[in-house]
Amino acid sequence: MEFIGLDTSSFAIHAVVINEKEEITGMYKWECDRKANYFDRFPELLENFRLGLDDIESKYAALEDSVPVGARSNNMTKLSRVVGAVWAFLIHANIETSFVPHGTWKKNVLGRGNAKKDDIMKYVVEKWGDKFPEQDYADAACLALWNKRRF
């Protein structure tokens, strides 16, 4: 059995897949033209994800929940749209999806719900080695680990 962790933004979707032994079996990134405006890049990002999802055979995904609040609500609204669309594609692919707040997966995996980016990167490098070229892969790996450990 394999477990996916997905980290999303309005520019890219990162996924890490782990097996029952907590070994990484795949790392994926789908992106779009960062210079394009949101309404042009959104369809491109999601089409790339839809096509790439065929390469993943896991049946369990963890997706970080997003709640649009505060001064960055415009960015959170964009992110919420991406999260919702990713979820729709996961449903279509028959991949069971769990939403998890960022503080929950951080507390479960790292022991602290307020862990910072440096804490996350340190943890994943200690666990899996220096194979994370971007922070988003590290977050996705921790989401995959949370996903696996919930069973």
Characterization of the model:
The chain has a five-stranded mixed β-sheet with strand order 3-2-1-4-5. The chain starts with a strand and ends with a helix. It is of the alpha/beta class and 151 residues long. The chain is built from five helices and five strands. It has one domain: Nucleotidyltransferase, domain 5.
Characteristic terms for this protein:
single chain; 151 residues; alpha/beta; Nucleotidyltransferase, domain 5; 5 helices; globular
Quick recap:
With 151 residues, the protein is α/β, with parallel strands linked by helices. Helix content is 47%, strand content 22%. Strand 1 and strand 2 form a beta hairpin.
Cα-to-Cα separation, first versus last residue:
11 Å
| Strand tally | 5
Helix content: 40-55%
User: What general form does the structure show?
Assistant: globular
Write the layout of secondary structure elements.
Elements: E1 2-8, E2 12-19, E3 24-31, H1 38-52, E4 60-64, H2 73-92, E5 96-100, H3 102-110, H4 117-128, H5 135-149
Parallel strand pairs: 1-4, 4-5
Antiparallel strand pairs: 1-2, 2-3
Helix pairs in contact: 1-2, 3-5, 4-5
